[in-house]
């Protein structure tokens, strides 16, 4: 493995309704929402979802696009989702996530095996979409 001190901090997802998106990630995916009340009160620009102690997903409304001025053309990224985001989970959590998504009526793909990622080849993987069409892969590596 690379001896790099760099860490993945956050990913910004464009969503139609950040409050609804936060509810989806909390109930169907099992992630902790952050700053949802503050967003609803107009105190912050968007809420977030905590993936782990080092990583969050920001849930940016499409109306936030004009504020994306850090680079020329940044505002044009609104509505252009990434190909997919991969979440790595231990075996029991992988199974629990799949069951929770199915309980919430979220369509999931079949199970793939041996797909390559940051930790080598995964034991199992499946895909699902959030309500805004963002694609996620859930992955389990051998424990």
What would you say this structure looks like, in words?
Helices cover 21% and strands 29% of the residues. The chain has 143 residues and is an alpha/beta fold. Strand 3 and strand 4 form a beta hairpin. The protein is globular. The strands form 3 sheets. Strands 1-4-3-2 form a 4-stranded mixed β-sheet, with helices on one face. A 3-stranded mixed β-sheet has the order 5-9-8, with helices on one face. Strands 6-7 form a two-stranded antiparallel ribbon. The protein is built from 3 helices and 9 strands; from the N terminus they run βαβαβββαββββ.
Assess the beta-strand content as a share of residues.
25-35%
Strand segment count: 9
Strand and helix order = EHEHEEEHEEEE
The global form is globular
Chain oligomer state? single chain
- What is the end-to-end distance? 17 Å
With strands numbered from the N-terminus, the spatial order across the biggest sheet is 1-4-3-2
Helix content: 10-25%
Number of helices: 3
Kindly provide the radius of gyration, computed on alpha-carbon positions and rounded to a whole number of angstroms.
Answer: 16 Å
